[in-house]
Design goal:
Layout: E1 2-6, H1 10-21, E2 25-29, H2 33-40, E3 45-46, H3 50-56, H4 63-68, H5 70-76, E4 89-93, H6 101-114, E5 117-122, H7 125-130, H8 141-146, E6 149-153, E7 159-163, H9 164-172, H10 190-197, E8 212-213, H11 215-227
Parallel strand pairs: 1-2, 2-3, 4-5
Antiparallel strand pairs: 5-8, 6-7
Helix pairs in contact: 10-11
Length: 228
């Protein structure tokens, strides 16, 4: 598989390292050079900018293709995509101030035009993990929406600066680390996550400004298809 990564934060870098370990071809770009150098040692290919990343992935992508030519673009990549059977789903985190209202509306518009399904978790990925536990009901929604960073003393006695969502999640899973997620800690609670998600916002048109996630709808659909 050929994959491009834009941004090598704690989670992104760890995902790249795992992909490289599984012998996938990964092209990366990041503003700061340190994480790029780290993943290059494991076999990642560096791109100097996003345009070069696209070129090194051997793909041709422009706005017209994204807007209304998805099927021929995918066929060009020798994919097994079948528009009668397959669906394209975009899964993203809100991450406060990461995009403007105009950008969000444009994203939703493009998804509608191309029949993409859009799944959003606000404020961050950790909230989706929190939904796998009953304690999520006790979360302070105002603090979670702001999701500010604060100093936190971990099990090793080392102070870290992490978000409110991470602090709350570690109160449930002390061993949780953003750069080394053990999904075995949550996978048995998927039905609970789907149930809990309905206690928060799930409407994609309101999620930009509300704590919630419609990701449970995707998993619910997948489970129903599997059982049908």
């Amino acid at each position: 598989m050929e994959i491009g990564f834009i941004g090598l934060g704690r989670m992104g870098k760890n995902m790249v390292l795992r992909l490289l370990k599984d012998e996938h071809r990964v092209v990366v770009w990041n503003r700061s050079p340190e994480p790029v150098e780290e993943v290059k040692k494991k076999g990642a290919i560096q791109a100097e900018d996003i345009e070069e990343l696209v070129i090194k992935l051997n793909i041709f992508l422009n706005e017209e293709i994204f807007q209304n030519q998805l099927e021929p673009f995918i066929k060009l990549q020798f994919s097994t995509y079948d528009p009668e059977l397959d669906e394209v789903c975009l899964i993203v985190d809100r991450d406060k101030n990461s995009f403007s209202k105009e950008q969000f509306e444009e994203l939703k518009k493009n998804c509608r035009l191309n029949n993409f399904k859009l799944y959003l978790t606000n404020p961050c990925f950790e909230f989706w993990l929190l939904l796998h536990f009953d304690e999520v009901i006790e979360v302070d929604r105002i603090k979670l929406f702001e999701n500010k960073k604060s100093k936190y003393k971990n099990n090793e006695g080392i102070f870290e600066e992490i978000t409110y969502a991470e602090v709350f999640l570690r109160s449930i899973i002390p061993e949780y680390r953003k750069n080394d997620i053990n999904f075995n800690l949550t996978k048995e609670n998927l039905q609970l996550a789907i149930y809990n998600s309905k206690k928060f916002e799930t409407d994609i048109n309101k999620l930009k400004d509300s704590v919630g996630s419609n990701l449970g709808m995707l998993f619910e659909e997948l489970i129903n298809r599997k059982n049908s």
